[in-house]
Amino acid sequence: MNRIKIPGNFLIGTSSSAWQIEGIAGKDSDQKSWAELFYETNPDIWFDKIGPQKASDFYSNYKEDIKTMASFGLNTFRFTIQWARFMKDPLTGKVDTRAVDYYRSVIKEIKENGMKPVISLEHWDIPAILFEKYNGWVGRKTVELYQLYVEKVLENFHSEVKW
């Protein structure tokens, strides 16, 4: 059997969405995401009714989880910054400093384990207030507030993350 050699510049890794792995740990009750609303209205359709409240608790175990990823020989980890966690108030652009500290620590851990961090900005975690107030992505105001969120993420992490 011939083995394929993966080129050194090839990114091989894993990816996640914040609400699936972080759960609600470290968030205030008013920082709900759309996924949390979805779970609250339809818990029966989730496997064993396990939703964002529990997830896999990456929030508390990220150092160990990242070390495990690196031990598999991965060189990249694409993670999502949870919009609802990152923005203390998504309507005004107020950033949650605890979230900045958390994601900065995640980025540091990824790099210390020899991997490259890749940020995803949204994956089913639109803040619930934007869904309730502007009908989510249907509302033009949500798009404007997304731009504000992206600017805040770049402001905080542009020097630490290339992708």
From TrEMBL:
Pfam families: Glyco_hydro_1. PANTHER family: 6-PHOSPHO-BETA-GLUCOSIDASE GMUD, GLYCOSYL HYDROLASE. Belongs to the glycosyl hydrolase 1 family. This is Beta-glucosidase. It comes from Candidatus Enterococcus ferrettii.
